[in-house]
Structures
1.
Amino acid sequence: MKRRDARRKAALDRIADHMLAHGIGPSSLRALADTAGTSDRMLLYYFTDKDDITRSALSLICLRIADALEAAVPSGSRYWAPEAMSVLAQVMRAPEFRPHMRVWFELVTLAMRGEEPFLGIAGQVADYFVDWVAARLEGDDASARRAEAAYLVSALDGLVLLDCVGRHEAADMALAHLIETAQRDMGGLAASNLNPPS
Amino acid sequence: MKRRDARRKAALDRIADHMLAHGIGPSSLRALADTAGTSDRMLLYYFTDKDDITRSALSLICLRIADALEAAVPSGSRYWAPEAMSVLAQVMRAPEFRPHMRVWFELVTLAMRGEEPFLGIAGQVADYFVDWVAARLEGDDASARRAEAAYLVSALDGLVLLDCVGRHEAADMALAHLIETAQRDMGGLAASNLNPPS
DNA sequence: TCCTTTACGTAGTGAGCACTACATACCTCG
DNA sequence: CGAGGTATGTAGTGCTCACTACGTAAAGGA
């Protein structure tokens, strides 16, 4: 029971890599087995069925995303909205983060069909991300922070979506406009320390 | 050459319906033929191959989306940003519009893989939509309108994404926050008439 | 009427899919 | 050493997929 678990874990790691590189849908058992260095036969020995594999790989990927975000924006830091938007956009629009965003969007389209487990997972991820952003915003009113976080999350998703279809210029314009608007919204309050466009 | 074209067109209409209802990916030739009232054999007689079918259905769906948007927000009307956001969100978040948004998101995830024709189509759709919104905004500066439009489009996409994963409450909060922010941003200028077009 | 083009049905093809039956190697413990 | 569970290879199963070979009916112009 030990050797099996170890191999299962190792396989899952490679499987997550493969899904990040090629997507959830196009990942057949055979293709996953190849990159994991085993056979489809063995994958179905380590996991109960393909759904188990998908579910497991997806949660591993979610953990990786959470880690990447945590590393980029540790939980201690507090930002006011325009700053947060700038920092998060920089992280999430980075080329090396693109595979994660692609899996996120694919997960969303699978969830839209209403099929489990995708709908459940996608909802949890969205909740997690909103809370995660809210925890990093300034302000005492928790519900106001949550509203602002929901706003930032949806704007970020839309931004990355534009990037994903090759409209980087439009995404740039949208981001600049958003930051500018948010800055003006905060009154003249501390409109100084923002590295990107002033 | 006439009968064939007529049948092709009729089939395409039903095919678009099927794709809106069930998605692009899960639409096999057989399933499409069933809802079109023919056989897969005949679909490949009307069209050159499945890619031709997908491409054709997708452009028909895009036309339908354009029509629906045009009907909801005719080209004569001009809005200032918070108004526009409110109106567009109401249209695009409506349950009857959901199938169209699902196809849009699926198109985006297909485009993310970099495969044609999806990447090209998705880019065109994004461009079209940004221009469409820009043409309906107030203001003389065309490039400022485009920037604002790109911002609104990305925010709208993110909003609908939250809806699609079942987070309607978060989407509501995000929308409310966005409108409030945008209103405050415009100064006190005409912060009164939000519902109707000016 | 005959003949060519167009339209359509039947019945496949080979490939890929998730998944399995079965035999055998291997490793561990008594 | 030998028995019994654990691990793995081989070779399938039945299914769906996009697509096709081939034959024939219908349509339409001469």
2.
Amino acid sequence: MIFTTTTEYAIRGLAELAGRSSDSKSIMLDDLVAGTTLPRDFLAKVFQRLVKAGLLKSAKGRGGGFMLARPAHEITIKDIVESIDGPIHLDRCAVGLDKCNDHQPCPQHDLYQPIRQRLKDYLATTTVADLASSLKTKQAWQKIIENNAAEKEKQHANGKH
Amino acid sequence: MIFTTTTEYAIRGLAELAGRSSDSKSIMLDDLVAGTTLPRDFLAKVFQRLVKAGLLKSAKGRGGGFMLARPAHEITIKDIVESIDGPIHLDRCAVGLDKCNDHQPCPQHDLYQPIRQRLKDYLATTTVADLASSLKTKQAWQKIIENNAAEKEKQHANGKH
DNA sequence: CTATAATCGGATAAAAATGTCCTCTAAAGA
DNA sequence: TCTTTAGAGGACATTTTTATCCGATTATAG
């Protein structure tokens, strides 16, 4: 994977949040992680960082929880990654030959450049809203698959009779 | 960066090796890291792994050292990465929505697929020979830059006279 | 005001990655 | 054979990442 575990949690957490809570309504951590494999306590730390970075708003006490600081379609993966890891460092030479940059490129740098650029574009244009809808699509499939499995099980039981 | 520090050392180490030693002649670690920022002892460990993976051959004792197990143009970055990290895991969903794969893609998966493919192609087609020549190009530049700096310094001194 | 409910934030632990050192082993040359 | 020289490999140290826990803080409801 191209992200760290922490960054991945941030991305998944925001995607869940956008998918589960309606706009301008906050959701509690316990509700957000329910049914996911997201680690509650660790995600809490990650969300604290996202609050400080201005991607999330939080509220303590009863009725508290987290909500997006701006619309889901205005938060990109790039925003998330940079909130966690700091400025994206994709500009370094892909193969670790330092002192390579756009001013002083090496052949590898030029070859890798188009890939880097596409990655950057992807990160800069894909938003939390996109991710949330991807999540929903995935969840829908999951159900279909489970149903199919149940159906097969049923047929199998009948056949045995 | 998209590689771990360890993998990056492996890549840089092999590039240096291919650049410094003529074919079918081994080079010692101490010579290989001279003038680089590669950490000698840690690289030794990394090279041990590459020997076991079949990318390098090693020889103990006098006249010993390391050499490529096959021609530089037949060792790809992919080979190196897989020797260190195991099979490349780029196939996972880019945004960590698990249960996504080519059979069961989600929208993000499809969007990210072309980027992933290009990355894979790059890793599978770029060889140690390419990296070595990139290194040499870079080193040539480095010299030019240093010369320019020295020249300027000289002019500056003259001007002051 | 009090009890409850939520995040915040510090402390700490566990695990993984990275880095260092030292002895063992194998090979070559005197 | 003996000495020197190289990597091999084990032990250990350090740092970073990931994970967990708990009291403090803040807000709400009654």
